[in-house]
Write a structure and sequence with these properties.
It is a single chain. By secondary structure, the chain is α/β, with parallel strands linked by helices. It contains seven helices and ten strands. Strand 2 and strand 3 form a beta hairpin. Helix 1 packs across helix 2 and helix 1 crosses helix 5. The longest helix has 22 residues. The protein is globular.
């Protein structure tokens, strides 16, 4: 018997629902909070253990590459949404989740994909009888796909497993994800590829 664990990128979840159909409570847009709770309750009802991974500020990434995620800081709409979600929605959601059977992980120096890698490594070391479904849309997570973990692109609703690895036009296997991103760069994070 395997435990089914849903690993959710908490920040992605908030942003995904924030840009959906608006739901207001006392004049504030609360769709990210309300829809996140409804979806998590659905996963729990389906027999999943739910683990939420929250982004910290990975300063080491900015130290290595000052341009890291710079286009997100320059876009005023994204910056305003980010500020609202981080100051209003995430604290409320974290508090609510502390009262239901959901595990939350946070490290001030890591992002959610780092925490996912740590969590999957821990499961392998402990020989956990668990199957993980990683929920986000960040293709960096594809490199974590393996026998115990698949990746669910929540935007497209497409699941990628180690058996049927179709991680996109450039990737034939999880190991190729980092190799291709090193060569071509990662536009979503403003990381340039190899010159030449």
């Amino acid at each position: 018997q395997f435990n089914k664990i849903m690993l959710i990128d908490g920040s992605f979840f908030c942003y995904f629902y924030h840009y959906g159909e608006e739901l207001f409570v006392k004049g504030k847009p609360m769709q990210a909070f309300l829809k996140s709770i409804a979806t998590i309750r659905y996963f729990l009802a389906q027999g999943y253990e739910v683990e939420i991974l929250w982004d910290g500020h990975a300063q080491w990434r900015y130290d290595l590459l000052p341009e890291y995620k710079s286009s997100r800081r320059l876009n005023e709409d994204l910056a305003a949404a980010r500020k609202y979600i981080k100051s209003e929605i995430q604290p409320l959601l974290k508090e609510f989740l502390s009262y239901i059977p959901v595990t939350q992980y946070y490290s001030p120096h890591d992002e959610a994909d780092d925490l996912a890698a740590y969590r999957l490594n821990l499961a392998e070391i402990k020989e956990e009888a668990s199957i993980f479904r990683m929920l986000c849309s960040d293709t960096d997570w594809l490199q974590l796909v393996g026998q115990q973990a698949d990746w669910w692109n929540f935007r497209t609703k497409k699941v990628t497993s180690h058996i049927d690895f179709t991680g996109g036009a450039f990737y034939d296997s999880p190991g190729q994800v980092a190799e291709v991103k090193i060569l071509t760069g990662d536009n979503s994070d403003d990381i340039p590829g190899v010159k030449g």
